[in-house]
Specification:
- Strand 8 and strand 9 form a beta hairpin.
- The chain has 8 domains: 30 residues, no CATH class; 91 residues, Immunoglobulin-like (Sandwich), CATH 2.60.40.1220; 79 residues, Immunoglobulin-like, CATH 2.60.40.1220; 86 residues, Immunoglobulin-like (Sandwich), CATH 2.60.40.10; 93 residues, Immunoglobulin-like; 76 residues, Immunoglobulin-like, CATH 2.60.40.10; 200 residues, Immunoglobulin-like (Sandwich); 104 residues, Sandwich (Immunoglobulin-like).
- The chain is 2% helix and 54% strand.
- The strands form 19 sheets. Strands 50, 52, 53, 55, 56 and 63 form a 6-stranded mixed sheet that branches. A 5-stranded mixed sheet has the order 2-9-8-4-5, with no helix packed on it. Strands 11-18-17-13-14 form a 5-stranded mixed sheet, with no helix packed on it.
- The protein is mainly β.
- It contains 1 helix and 71 strands.
- The termini are far apart.
Length: 803
């Protein structure tokens, strides 16, 4: 177009050209859709500075690759964008200078050929550092006063969530034996065999999800109390009268001479016991009781501990009957309630029409009448109160009033018997009275109360095969289609029993325990294994229906995941349904805790522990039990040393070894006029107990040379003590060395992965600081700890050190 044209035709041509141009523009489809950008997640992570991120970038037109931008925390940075392969939209992105470590906000922008801009916003965690652990409870360098004190560590990571993907734990340079768990960024260690007095060193290697590993080391001092009373009770709550078993759990380094119990916590001690027996006491009055245990050791030191029992007020037992429940209005019904309670019954509150309002209060429960003037159904109830305020409300279909309109019939249900054990066969009959001029047409029976007619006629029989409370009903229909309904009550019970044979499981030998159950009726049931705390550790039989009869189920000592459980006592518990109620058959609290003297080997008249001829006593348990074994004096009522203190052991033969030292590690002086007296007691577990043991033990412990010269490194000597023994299974061997005269511990060391069979470990004559010990006599004790945490008893030998 030439605008210099002046004639009319030129002006027309210009106008025409504009018109054509506009028309052409309207005919085009303009691209207004921006590119799409997608990432695997809103927050991305990199473990290396030059790691590339993958971003999906797509557009239905051509991208303008020159427009690609990367913003980190709002700042545009030079970036390297690598185009995808043919047929892909996956772009690779990284900053030219590398990703800065830390947490950042990211933005990627790109435009297409039409300059439509697409945008992705997200976050980046750039982590190049390993996680760190901080001791939280207790803090590092703290003193540990409990043998089972958990150690907790907070997981910290500079740029990642507080978690770790893997870890390994060492104790004193050897493998940690115990439970390790990670929950919500907190790593917890719980020792299987308890901490020992002395320095404690924990090393933890932790790795994050990128594989960055870091090692953390923590030091503690274990100083267990010389004496600590920690009584246990089973159960700790329940309705009065509450029968409780109390067990004298203690921590002690010295022999305990007396166990005193104050059951009610009133400051007056009710029992003084020299042995440490399980006590049984029944709390008859509701309230809170702090039962106290006071123990006195051989030094005269005293410790007190308490356990709290909540004894609840048991609500009254109550039942209600009514002389008639149906008929035409006006209908007068007379209720009678029978209630009992050890505290006495205070009152009865009646709600005749079921609206939640108390219609009448009476002191006695018999002969309480009311008249229903209006036809309808009235779920009557009564609430019974005892003198302490506990209450029981009784409301059931068999006392619901169904008042009919004028001309309605009435019907009465009779059943025999009304209570018994399943399978229970019951005979039913009905007596119906129609209104004048009407007649009975049908009688329909619903025996289980499910609303379905099971039989018809004036009489019927039915067998209840499952326990529960049932409300059978009969409905009469007259020739004039008038109806009335009578409901009865039927209590069907059951008998169940449970016993355990082969109640000690040897997981090494692969033995199993057998749980036998005897059912008098069909039952919906579940058989589980619980630990001491009552938590289910294995479901042996899931919920299912079993017919009446005898059953045997086995358990091999593993949990539901197939992992062998730690050495401990567990309990077989039968859960079964009686109607809507789930009942438990559990012998804890009613059995167990009985003290016996297990058979043992004869004791020689003399032994020579300082010539490495210790006293060894073997004893046999018929079933699992907690064992207390000690050495005292024949003519003096005192204990010198405690070998076992309520130590749980499985059935079989066991041994204790004594090296002549007392609980303080010092030699006990002999007195010919007052010889030693060995004592042993076994306290059985509840009848449903199963003891899981992963037996690890050693025998034939020998040491050489007779005199250790640590500096003697010749062809005939290596300057070390050699401890040789036979080991039943691969284990960690723990060595503790203490001075005979002072009892002071000088060395503690763990030897990992010692194989089964003929085995040995060595002591180099050095203390925990790596220095040679002073000349003198030292007591060397070893014990074996298997991978489940079970530790054998220490066995000791004496080593002379000379320079």
């Amino acid at each position: 177009m030439h605008t210099s044209w002046q004639h009319k035709g030129g002006a027309w041509l210009v106008a025409l050209a504009v018109l054509i141009s506009v028309t052409a523009c309207k005919g085009k489809s303009k691209d207004k859709t921006p590119p799409t950008l997608t990432a695997p997640a809103e927050t991305l992570a990199v473990s290396e500075p030059n790691q590339e991120l993958i971003l999906g970038i797509g557009d239905n037109k051509k991208l303008n690759t020159d427009s690609l931008q990367l913003l980190i925390d709002g700042s545009d940075v030079a970036a390297v964008f690598t185009a995808p392969a043919a047929g892909s939209d996956q772009w690779r992105i990284r900053p030219a200078a590398g990703w800065p470590e830390g947490r950042h906000g990211l933005v990627v922008i790109v435009a297409d050929a039409a300059n439509n801009k697409g945008r992705w916003e997200g976050n980046l965690n750039a982590d190049y550092s390993p996680p760190a652990l901080v001791a939280s409870d207790p803090t590092a360098n703290a003193t540990i006063a409990q043998p089972d004190q958990p150690l907790t560590f907070n997981v910290q990571d500079q740029n990642l969530p507080a978690s770790i993907s893997s870890w390994s734990v060492k104790q004193q340079g050897g493998a940690f034996v115990g439970e390790v768990s990670l929950v919500n960024g907190v790593l917890t260690l719980v020792p299987a065999a308890g901490w020992l007095d002395g320095p404690l060193q924990i090393e933890i290697v932790a790795s994050d999800i990128f594989g960055h590993s870091g090692e953390s080391s923590f030091s503690y001092t274990v100083k267990l109390p010389d004496l600590l009373a920690m009584p246990d009770a089973t159960p700790t709550s329940g309705f009065a009268p509450l029968a409780v078993q109390l067990k004298p759990t203690i921590i002690t380094k010295f022999a305990v001479n007396t166990y005193e119990w104050d059951f009610s916590g009133d400051g007056k001690y009710d029992v003084s016991d020299p042995v440490g027996r399980t006590q049984n006491f029944t709390y008859t009055t509701p309230g809170t009781y702090n039962a106290k245990l006071r123990v006195t050791d051989s030094r005269g030191k005293v410790s007190e501990g308490a356990v709290t029992m909540e004894v609840l007020n048991r609500p009254p037992a109550a039942s209600v009957s009514v002389d008639r429940t149906n008929g035409q209005v006006p209908l007068t019904a007379t209720f009678s309630a029978v209630a009992s309670d050890s505290d006495g019954i205070a009152r009865f509150e009646w709600d005749f029409n079921g609206d939640g309002t108390v219609d009448r209060t009476t002191i006695t429960g018999s002969g309480v009448s009311t008249t229903y003037e209006t036809a309808g159904s009235y779920p009557a109830s009564v609430t019974v109160f005892d003198s302490r305020g506990a209450s029981t409300r009784v409301r059931a279909p068999n006392i619901e009033i169904r008042a009919g309109e004028a001309g309605s019939p009435s019907v009465t249900l009779t059943a025999s018997p009304v209570r018994g054990f399943a399978p229970l066969r019951v005979s039913f009959s009905a007596t119906a009275t129609p209104a004048s001029g009407d007649s009975v047409s049908t009688l329909e029976w619903d025996f289980d109360g499910n609303g379905v007619t099971d039989a018809t006629g004036a009489s019927a029989t039915y067998e209840y095969t499952l326990p529960g409370t049932y409300y059978p009903a009969v409905t009469v229909t007259t020739a004039q289609s008038k109806k009335a309904k009578s409901v009865g009550s039927m209590i069907v019970d059951t008998r169940v029993s449970l016993s355990v044979t082969d109640s000690t499981i040897d997981t090494v030998a692969g033995t199993v325990a057998t749980v036998a159950t005897d059912l008098s009726s069909n039952l919906e049931l579940r058989l589980v294994i619980e630990n001491e705390a009552g938590a289910v550790v294995r479901e042996v039989v899931p919920w299912k229906r079993r017919t009446a009869g005898k059953y045997s189920d086995t358990w091999n000592g593993t949990n539901d995941a197939g992992k062998v459980l730690p050495r401990a006592a567990y309990y077989a518990v039968l859960q079964y349904k009686v109607g809507d109620e789930v009942r438990r058959l559990d012998a804890r609290g009613s059995t167990g805790g009985h003290a016996t003297n297990p058979p043992r080997s004869s004791i020689p008249r003399s032994f020579q522990p300082y010539n490495n001829d210790p006293l060894i006593v073997t004893f046999t348990l018929d079933g699992p039990a907690e064992v207390t074994a000690f050495m005292g004096l024949f003519n003096t009522n005192t204990r010198l040393v405690t070998f076992l203190d309520r130590e749980p052991l499985g059935a079989g033969t066991h041994a204790v070894s004594w090296d002549g030292n007392g609980d303080d590690g010092k030699p006990i002086l002999t007195n010919p006029s007052d010889p030693f007296l060995f004592g042993i007691w076994a306290y059985d577990f509840a009848d449903n107990a199963v003891f899981v043991q992963t037996p690890v033990s050693f025998s034939d412990l020998q040491i050489s040379p007779a005199i250790l010269v640590p500096s003697d490194r010749t062809a005939s000597a290596d300057g070390r003590t050699h401890l040789q023994f036979k080991l039943t299974k691969a284990a960690t061997i723990e060595l503790v060395v203490s001075h005979v005269e002072t009892g002071q511990q000088v060395r503690r060391q763990a030897f990992l992965g010692v194989p089964a069979g003929d085995a040995s470990v060595k002591w180099d004559g050095r203390n925990n600081a790596g220095k040679f010990v002073a000349p003198g006599k030292y007591r060397l004790g070893i014990r074996a700890i298997d991978d489940s945490g079970h530790a054998s008893p220490f066995e000791y030998r004496v080593q002379r050190v000379y320079y």
